[in-house]
Design a protein that fits this description.
A hairpin with a 4-residue loop joins strand 5 and strand 6. Helices cover about 25% and strands about 35% of the residues. Residues about 1-10 have low confidence and may be disordered. The chain has a domain at about 40-130: SH3 type barrels (Roll), CATH 2.30.30.240. The protein is an alpha+beta fold. It has a seven-stranded mixed β-sheet with strand order 5-6-1-2-3-4-7. The protein is globular, with a radius of gyration of 22 Å.
Length: about 130
């Protein structure tokens, strides 16, 4: 009976072990240090974006990553209290993010009006990008 239980447990863990091996990163951990001029996703997600006229035009809701690199920001535009939000994907180079040390806050500036962002192609959270 004991052998049967052990054999069953082994058989049940094999698919999980095979899946873990197929998707596991390099097993050797490579510690690094965070550069002083780096920005953490924690500080970016939820960041309000203004334009050069200091008008609030949107908010960064998500990051688009491809091959381990930042490929875009999902920006929420329009909407009120989370209702009617429209999402657009913008390139990282179109957003300037900086830290205002005197006010101890992050700032995001984009060279666009709210109407320009509203007229950009819409990104939808669906399929594999569904939350």
């Amino acid at each position: 009976m004991r052998k049967f239980i052990l054999a069953t447990a082994l058989i049940l863990t094999l698919p999980a072990a095979a899946l873990a091996q197929a998707t596991a990163p390099n097993p050797k951990v490579q510690p690094t240090t965070v550069p002083n001029d780096a920005i953490l996703s924690y500080d970016v997600i939820g960041l309000k974006l203004t334009n050069s006229n200091n008008e609030k035009v949107g908010e960064i809701k998500d990051l688009v990553m491809e091959n381990g690199k930042l490929d875009g920001y999902i920006v929420s535009v329009g909407g009120f209290l989370g209702m009617g939000d429209r999402y657009v994907d913008v390139t990282p180079s179109s957003v300037a993010i900086s830290y205002d040390s005197s006010n101890k806050e992050w700032k995001g500036v984009i060279n666009a009006t709210k109407d320009e962002l509203k007229s950009a192609p819409e990104f939808k959270y669906e399929g594999k990008f569904k939350h």
